[in-house]
Amino acid sequence: MSVKAVTHLNFRGDARAALTFYQSVFGGAVAVVTYKDAGNVQDASEADQVMWGQVSADSGLCVMAYDVPSRMPWHQGENAFFVSVRGDGAEEITAYWEKLSDGATVLQPLAAAQWAPLYGMLRDRFGVTWVLDVVNEYNAS
C-alpha cells in the first residue's frame, strides 16, 4: 500500500485558472472534475467550477485544487488549503481516519463518493482540515 500527502488549495471560482498556471510553471497534466461532472450541482451558477482538480508533473510534484461552493465560508488566505491524504486501499485510509477523528469535527463522513471509492473530510482538534480518500483511476497521481 502507498499513501501520500498532497497540498489541496482552495479557491472561489479561480481553481481552473490556478491549475492551468501551475501546469505552465511545473509541467505535467491537469485533470479537472466539475460539480456538473460529479453530479453534485447545488447552485447552477457553479456547475462548471472545479469540484476536484490537480496538476501532476513528471517530477513527482502534485497539487490539488477546488472551488469552494458559495454556500460554504471562504476568505482568501484564511482557509487557503487542506491536507489531502491519498491512499490505495480503504483499510489504510480508514485507519488514518479513525485516529484523526479523535476530537475532530467531521465535515463529510468517510464513505463512497461518486468521484472516489472512499472520501471524507474533517477538521482535527487543532483546526487543520484533512481530506482522506482512496485513489481511483482518474484521480491517481
Automatic annotation (TrEMBL):
InterPro entries in alphabetical order: Glyas_Bleomycin-R_OHBP_Dase, PhnB-like
Sorted alphabetically, which SUPFAM superfamilies does this protein's record hold? Glyoxalase/Bleomycin resistance protein/Dihydroxybiphenyl dioxygenase (SSF54593)
Q: Which domain of life is it from?
A: Bacteria
Q: Where is the PhnB-like domain?
A: 4-130
Q: Which Pfam families match?
A: 3-dmu-9_3-mt
Residue ranges annotated as coiled coil are none
Quote the PANTHER family the UniProt record gives: PROTEIN YJDN (PTHR33990:SF1), PROTEIN YJDN-RELATED (PTHR33990)
Q: What is this protein called?
A: VOC family protein
